[in-house]
Structures are given as structure tokens and as C-alpha cells.
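Field log, afternoon session.

UNIT: design team B
ACTIVITY: writing a sequence onto a fixed backbone
BACKBONE:
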């Protein structure tokens, strides 16, 4: 029997074999990346990757972004989607700067977080150990317009030693309460109220005027005053505000020490 392996191949056979090899190379090049063999340790683009442990990316170059992710210009595509089963989807750390810094130029939010059962956004910061450093802030909102905006059944809820603190850096209000219409309630208080621009003074016997010094007073302020002691035939006739103080006038002098309560508006 003739050994076919030892027989020289014809020119036609060689051409057919070469054509078949070229077709195989072209077919493999047309396959999607997911079908191309790759190392199991490599991060594959355009495909699902399964890791059995933590994946860490360290950038050794200073002052550069370690990872940049951009989504195509679409209404539903997100740059990064992170989901945690029973833990945070994203946890960030920072030594001195913001742990999470987000900027968005259009009307959508720079950061959108949805909590199906509990909290959408949770921010925690430890109190600074150095007393010269600003105390830790869990969530900081900064904008030339609205620093923090909340909507819903309760737009903003604060709980703590001081639930909500508002401080003004100008002549505007530290806390501004707005009613949607003239008949809507702008501010509702349940419980006691404490005002720093209120108090009481004592008028000595045989006097009918009392000057009360109070920083920030001006002639445009409105002052209310009423007797706290029962004095028949005596009442507050007028309260006149001026720069730095106001004066309480009774209709006539009291015969014994008398307490007067006062309250300043505007």
C-alpha cells in the first residue's frame, strides 16, 4: 500500500488548504470580543467578568485620576452602576478632600441615589480629633443657588441635639420658611419656642419708664410689652425703640416693684 503521507501534495491541494486557513482567520476576526479566548485573570471589555475576590486598582502617579469611566450620550446609560446586596453599593475614602466629588452640567443630579427600603444617601464623618480643624460633616451641599434641596412628604428632616441649624452669612435669614400662597402656613412649631430677643425687666416702685439695652435695636424694630405683675389701673402705654435700646412707658407710676415682659420683632 502506498504511504499517502509521504506522497507530495498537488498544487491544487495546497491552494485549497491556504484558502481554508485564510477563511478561518477572517471568521475569528469577525467574532465579538466575548468569543475571543482571553486570560481568565484579564478584565474583559464588553462582557461580564466574574471575580472571586476584591479587585484593586492602584495608581502610582500623583495628581491624576486613577479610573475614568464615561458613558455614551444617552438618557439611560450610567458611567458606573454599583449595587450592594446588604452593604453600600459604593464606599469612598479620602484623607483630606471630599470622599465623593460629583459635578453635573445639566438639570439631572450629579449624584442620584435610591433606597428601596432605607436610605438613599447616607453620609458619616467622624469628629475631627484636632480642635483646630473644622468638625466633621456627614453631608455637605454647596452651590451659589441651593446648597441642599429636599422634596417629598418631608423635604428635610434633622434629628440630634440640634435637629437643624441655619446660619446666615449676611443680612438674609439663617432659616427661611415660605408659604406657597398667602393662605399656606410658612412655619409651624410643635412644642416650646425660645427667642433670644425676648425677656423681662423689673420696674422699681414709683417709676413709670424703663430703658432696656439690646444690641441690634433700631427705630424700625417692633417691640411688644405687657405687665407680668397684677397692678390695677396700670398698663403699658407705649414702647419706643431706638438705636441700641428701647424704652417702656406705663400710663402712671407703679407703687411697688413690677415685672414687665417684652418681645422684639423685625
Amino acid at each position: 500500500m502506498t504511504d499517502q503521507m509521504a506522497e507530495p501534495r498537488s498544487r491544487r491541494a495546497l491552494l485549497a488548504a491556504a484558502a481554508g486557513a485564510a477563511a478561518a482567520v477572517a471568521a475569528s476576526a469577525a467574532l465579538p470580543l466575548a468569543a475571543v479566548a482571553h486570560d481568565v485573570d484579564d478584565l474583559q471589555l464588553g462582557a461580564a467578568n466574574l471575580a472571586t475576590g476584591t479587585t484593586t486598582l492602584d495608581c502610582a502617579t500623583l495628581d491624576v485620576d486613577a479610573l475614568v469611566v464615561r458613558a455614551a450620550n444617552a438618557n439611560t446609560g450610567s458611567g458606573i452602576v454599583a449595587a450592594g446586596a446588604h452593604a453600600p453599593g459604593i464606599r469612598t475614602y479620602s484623607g483630606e478632600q471630599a470622599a465623593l466629588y460629583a459635578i453635573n452640567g445639566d438639570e439631572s443630579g450629579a449624584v442620584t441615589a435610591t433606597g428601596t427600603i432605607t436610605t438613599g444617601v447616607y453620609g458619616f464623618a467622624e469628629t475631627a480629633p484636632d480642635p483646630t480643624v473644622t468638625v466633621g460633616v456627614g453631608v455637605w451641599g454647596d452651590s451659589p443657588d441651593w446648597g441642599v434641596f429636599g422634596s417629598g412628604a418631608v423635604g428635610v428632616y434633622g434629628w440630634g441635639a440640634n435637629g437643624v441649624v441655619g446660619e446666615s452669612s449676611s443680612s438674609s435669614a439663617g432659616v427661611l420658611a415660605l408659604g406657597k400662597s398667602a393662605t399656606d402656613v410658612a412655619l409651624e412649631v410643635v412644642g416650646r419656642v425660645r427667642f433670644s430677643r425676648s425677656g423681662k425687666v423689673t420696674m422699681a416702685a414709683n417709676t413709670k419708664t424703663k430703658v432696656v439695652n439690646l444690641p441690634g435695636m433700631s427705630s424700625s424694630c417692633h417691640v411688644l410689652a405687657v405687665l407680668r405683675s397684677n397692678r390695677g389701673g396700670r398698663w403699658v402705654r407705649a414702647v419706643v425703640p431706638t438705636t441700641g435700646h428701647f424704652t417702656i412707658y406705663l400710663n402712671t407710676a407703679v407703687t411697688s416693684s413690677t415685672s414687665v415682659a417684652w418681645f422684639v420683632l423685625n
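LOG NOTE: Residues 198-265 form one domain.
NEXT ACTIVITY: expression trials, pending approval
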